[in-house]
Each structure stands twice: as C-alpha cells, then as structure tokens.
Input
Amino acid sequence: MTDDQGARDCEPKALREYALIADGERGVLVGPHGEYAWMCFPSWESPPAFSGLLGGPGGYLAQPVSPRWVWGGYYEDHGLIWHSRWVTGEGAMLECREALARPAGRDRAVILRRCRAVRGASRVRVLLDVRAGPGAPRMRNLRHHDPDWTARSGGTSIRWHGGDEAVVREGADGGPVLALTFDLAEGQSRDLVLELTAGGADPAGGPLDAAALWAATQRDWREAVPDCSDTIAPRDARLAYSVLTGLTSSGGGMAAAATTALPERSNEGRNFDYRYAWIRDQCFAGRAVAVHGGPPRLLRNAAEFVAARIEAEGDRLKPAYTVTGGPVPGERGGDLPGYPGATAVFGNQAGEQFQLDALGEALLLLAVAAERDGPGPGAAGAARTAAGVIARRWTRPGAGIWETRDDLWTHSRLTCVAGLRAAARTLAGPAEARSWNSLADAVLAETARTALTPGGRWKRTPGDDRVDAALLIPPLRGALPADDPRTVATLRAVREDLVEEGFVYRYRVGDQPLGVAEGAFTLCGFFLALAERRQGDTARALTTFERTRSGCATSGLFSEEYDVKQRQLRGNIPQAFVHALLLESACRLTG
Output
C-alpha cells in the first residue's frame, strides 16, 4: 500500500474480526478496516491476489477518512453480502456494501463495493493493488479509458470501474497502486466494480453496470438460500446455507475453508491448507441440506461430486481433492511471512492418505440423496464401488477423521457400518443388500470385540482407550440404536471427560488439561447437541447448541476451533463442516 497508515490497515487482525464474501469459485476475507485481506484467483487453491492476511502484498482498501472511527458490520439476510460500517469521531456513519457478483465464472471475478453515507457527510479513501499469480507480480500497463481503469498482473487482466479520479502512486515495494479519495453527502452512494479475468484475456468489454450486477447477485442469493424460519436459529441457518453455497464451485466441489495456514495453535506447526474439497466435509454439508429439505442444488452437487470421485478413484480414493476434482498437491512452504505465530504453507498431506470413514460418509450421502430425489447419475455404481473398497480395506489401518496417524479407528469402522446399512436400503438390489448388511454386521462384531472398554464404551482404537467425541457420530448416522448401551456409555463419557464450561473437545492430549493442547472443537459441540437430543434430553441439547454457537466471529462465521479462555477463533475460516452441523442441529432441535 502507499503509506504507513494503509500498510498498518492491511496487517493481520484477530480472526474474529473478519467476514467473508464469496461466489463459489473464490472468496474474499474482509477486515475491520475495510481491507481485503485475502483472495485467491482464479480459484480457491490459486495463488493469492490479496495476501495481507499472511503478511504479503496486494490489497483493496475502502474506509472513512477520519482521525477516529469504530467498526461494525453485518450480513444481509440471504447470502454473503456484507455491510462494513464505521462511525467516525465526527458522528458520521459510513457503510460499504460488499459482494462477489453471482452467478460467477471460473475465470472471471467481479467484486462489488457500494459506499454510502448513512448519516452525515463522509470522505472515503480507496487503495487498490492487485497481485495475481505466482510470485505476486505487480500491476503493469495501467491505463485510464474513461470510465474505467485497466491493468494487468501476471496473466490476469484487471478492469476497475468507479475510480475516475484515481491516481497512480508508488507502493511500499515500488509497485504501482491506484489511490482514490472522494466525498459523499448524507444519503449519497458510490459504486466501485473490480473485474479480474484469468488467462491474460482482454476484459469482457461490456459495461460494468453496478446496478444490474447487484440485482443479479441479490436475486441469485435469494434463490439459493431458503428462509429457514422452520429452524430454531433462522438467521444462523441462513448464514450456514450462504457459507456452504459460497464455498461450492460450479464443478460441485466445496472448499473446506477459504484460507490457508491460519494457526490452530501458535508456533506449534499446526497450520494447514484447507482450500480443498474434503469428501467427508462435502458429505456433512449435503446431509445437512437434506435434513432441512431446502433447495436441492447443494445436495445434488455434493452427491454428484462424491460419486464421481469414487467411480474414478476406487481403492485409490483420497480424502480431499481440488474443487474441480483434481489432486491436492503435497504440503510445501510459501514465500509469504505467514499469519503471526505460523508459517505460510500451501498444499496438504491429506491428499496422500486413505480415510476409511470417507467411504461410509459417502454411502450415507448417496443414500439420503436417493431418498430425497431418487438415485442421481452414477449413484448406484458409486455405492457398489464404495462397498467393495470397504470390504477390501476395513481390516487395514488408515487415517481417521482427525488425520493424526494410521490405525484401526473405531469411528471409521462404525461410520462404514452406518453407510452400508443406509445404502443397502436405498441403492442396492436384494442380493447386494444382503451382502452389504452382512458386511456391516461383520465390521460391527469385530469392532465390538476389539474396541470396547471394560466399562462398555467405545475406544478410539483397539490400542487407545481414550474418549473421543468423534464416536458420537456413527450412532447418529444409524450404526447403532439410540438406546444401545455402548452408545449411552460413550455419550456419558464424552460429557464427563471432554466438556468444560459447556464447550466440547475432541480428545485429551497426554496429561494436559482441556484447552491447553488445543481449543474446543466446534464441530463436536454440535454433534454432542444432536446426541443429547437423540437420547431425549432436549433441554441439555439446546443448552449445548446455544453454548457452541456462541463461539463464532462477530460476523457469525466459525473456524474449526475456539479458544475458550481468550474468546478467540483458531484455524482457517470459515470452516464449512461447522456451518453444516449448525444447520443440521438447528433443524433437528426444532420443536
């Protein structure tokens, strides 16, 4: 950016202060100072065009010109349309309405910003520095063709509308930055439209009509996000739909999160790249939509994406892919400084793992999709393939849901039991149904023989008798009845050993108290609420649900973990599977 203040405004902030706008193909993390702190282009896993979140170059700043102001913000009721709001020391109020235009294309992003003086007059400062492509190349060939500015960065074409008076200044590293200042009278607004086009192609050429783009975006979001008044938390449920929709690409894959390398624990190497589509996460999202009965697009996308990966990969099925179904690159370091307390990393080692539970979750997803809308293309074949892989692989160690080490994970096996039984009911002929149910019985019997404690609850693995909140999941999916003594004993153990101040942790790490080695795991809180509700303890389930959903950002977004002591988010944001489980919980706890 062009000055010391601009550089400070683009520095990393506490994660609870960020919001997300997204169009399915990519997303922007919006900070409290009006800064665009993170955006990869053209796709989720691409290099960042704005990277201030990890200490890198590039950004897009819009904020009031005032010596003093405080920040707030909110989402509109339907979709990821964010309003940044500032109240200045002079008593003025300025809002900036922000969105990525929808429907979106894979190679073209259109960012909409509408600044409006809500109360009193406002002066607005805007800075634009696009760094798209490997190595964060500076903008070049900047030209003003009334009414637009055009430029290039790497192989990306840039067009900016609404900044007629902008001037080119030298940024901190010597690269050019577009700088603009304008005044708004009370009630007046101004639109800024930024278009990025990949592949070095010229911009689309048609006018960037802000009013038409806003109307199309709002219409698309209203079609995608239902009212959710039939849940116990309508606004949060609508936001969950919006997050899941905003993270799901036109190819059907859903990014697990919009960011990479945000630390789950400072300076301990636990910072990962979640900009990829995890099979399990996709299944959680599809199932949540099926439970609610909302628009079928997310469910259909999830089922078709998962079925295609199973059919293409078979025994080589990976836990994660790019959102277009490509391989996830191995983890490597990056040339960005990183978020404070962590180094920048790109890629993920999960792409080399085998996770048995993903096959069970896939069968559950394909089954619930078939129950709702009939079997989709390839669903029966994918179920047949998945059942065959389970039959060949369930006796062999693999990575589990927490991706820590290879072992015979109880959760993975029991999830396959649930998936096989669900698929046998909906996707199998009589002979296959008998075979899959027989396989489920065999897996359950062996798991019960090797992975029960003397007290009758489930162990994590045959050799690890710790309590694990993941073991709440398979009974919820139908692996065991609600009143099965093993289900009841495991739920009781989770409550006694993994809950503190109403927040739920995954498992204990060594002899350390809860909250020291890692934060509360938000996903597990929603699963506990569902488990309590299934036992008929509705009052306790509602308490757990409300406590869990309090661990969010000011925008309402969730990360993977929550630091209860500091009231801080940990890890990448927003974490899709957490929003999926909030949606499912809000549906099932109604009434």
